[in-house]
Structure formats: C-alpha cells, structure tokens
Amino acid sequence: MNTNIILQAKDLKKYYGKGETKVHALDGVNLEIETGKFVAIIGTSGSGKSTLLNMLGGLDTPTAGTVTIGNTELSQLNDEQLTVFRRRRIGFIFQNYNLIPTLNVWENIVFPIAMDGQKPDQKFIGEIVQLLGLEQKIHSLPNNLSGGQQQRVAIARALASKPDIILADEPTGNLDSKTSDNVIALLHMTSQKFHQTIIMITHNPEIAQMTDQTIRIEDGRIVGGL
User: Fold this and answer.
1) Least crowded by CB within 10 Å, which of 21, 77, 176, 210?
2) What is the pTM of this model?
3) Cα–chain-centroid distance for residue 79?
4) Strand locations in the chain, DSSP E?
5) In CATH, what number does 5-224 get?
6) Where are the domains of the chain?
7) Under a CB-based contact definition with an 8 Å cutoff, are residues 219 and 13 in contact?
C-alpha cells in the first residue's frame, strides 16, 4: 500500500438476507484515503454510507473484501485484538454524541484512554479542550451543555487518544446550520493541526463541500468523487 495511504478498502461487500430478499448494502466498494485528509462520504438514506463507515471502523464484518488501516488488515485480527485496535487507532464521533451522563466533560474525554489502561496526555488534551472552546465547561455534566457543546466534547474525546483515523457519523445531524458550520470548521482545523485523517458521512451536500474530498455512494457502490 502507498505509504501516504492510511486506509484502503478492496472489493468491500455486505449482503443481508438470502435469495430474492437479499440486500446489497455494499456491492464492491474500492477506495483509498490519504493520511491527513478530511473526507466526506455522501449519499442518500439507504445508500450504504453508514454500512461503509461501520466496515471501515471494524464495527461490522464484511461479507467479502478487506479493510486495511496502515499495515493492518482488520480481518486478520480476532475480536479482542480488533477491540484494542479500534480503541487505540480509531476515534469515533456519533450523531447522538454517546456521552456518559454521570461523567463531567473532562472525564468523558479521557474515559476511553482510562478504559485502555493508559495515562492521558494532559497537555495534549488541554490543547484540544482550549481549541474547541471547552475550558470553561470541563467540570460540567453533559445535560448542562448545548447540543453544539456536547458535539465538541465528542470531538475532543475522539481526538484525545491520538488515533490515526477519526470516523464521524453524521456529526452535524442534530445541530442547527450555524452550529453545524462551526463543528465542520473545528473538525477541519483539528485535522490540520493534529494531522489526523477524518472520514465523515453526511447526506448534506453543503457540509460535504467544506471537506478536502467528497466520495459519493449510491446503492452500495461508489459513483463519484474518488
């Protein structure tokens, strides 16, 4: 694999059901993502973009094909190895934030690192917190934050373990347009500052235009943008 390619999918397929009811959620996807790029995968509801993101993040197993991150092919890892790999090498940002309501902002950010038995890089995380404008909120619980603030906490959590790749699932789906623009701008800025690769799925063409590269998927196949 090209040394500048951080992620590669080869002939990726995901089928559900059998016979006449078989659904081709992914039908032979090939893509390569360069290190440090901010990439949008765009498509309508049911196009396969969420399925693709789950495959790229090792959250689901393909029917056929491979996903390689760095020099690691995900199918070669057992369940335990894959869990550790995801925790250390991939950051996830979800549409519904997935914050732990009983933990404050700082505790939510460092929680995955603590789960891995590692010590958080206080200076690095402090820089992220400042960059995302959360320094006044680190002792706040999630239910005392706005939607935009909760999404920024989710971004900080994804960045905190210094993963190679961040996968963002409709990260602006629950936000108003102004907050959405701010979140995308923050993702772009953090991508450049910390040299992290971000792959984001969205159904919003305007949001996609704010990224470095757009890949369009329809009916489980990539139809443009590569």
Assistant:
1) 21
2) 0.90
3) 20
4) 5-16, 23-34, 38-42, 64-69, 72-73, 90-93, 165-169, 197-202, 213-218, 221-224
5) 3.40.50.300
6) 5-224
7) no
Amino acid, res. 65? G
Helix residue ranges, H only, 116-218: 122-131, 147-160, 177-194, 205-208
Which two tokens mark 151? 């999404």
- Tell me if 9 sits within 8 A of 62, measured CB to CB: no
First vs last Cα of the chain: how many Å apart? 17
Helix (H, G, I), strand (E, B) or coil at 44: coil
Which pair of structure tokens corresponds to residue 13?
């397929």
The pLDDT profile of the chain, 226 residues, written as one tens digit per residue, is: 567 999 999 999 999 998 888 999 999 999 999 999 999 999 998 899 999 999 999 999 999 999 999 999 999 999 999 999 999 999 999 888 999 999 999 999 999 999 888 999 999 999 999 988 899 999 999 999 999 999 999 999 999 988 999 999 998 888 888 888 888 888 888 888 888 899 999 988 989 999 999 999 999 999 987 5
Closest CA to 94 of 146, 147, 16: 147
Amino acid 146 reads: S
Please give the Cα distance from 204 to 216 (Å, whole number): 11
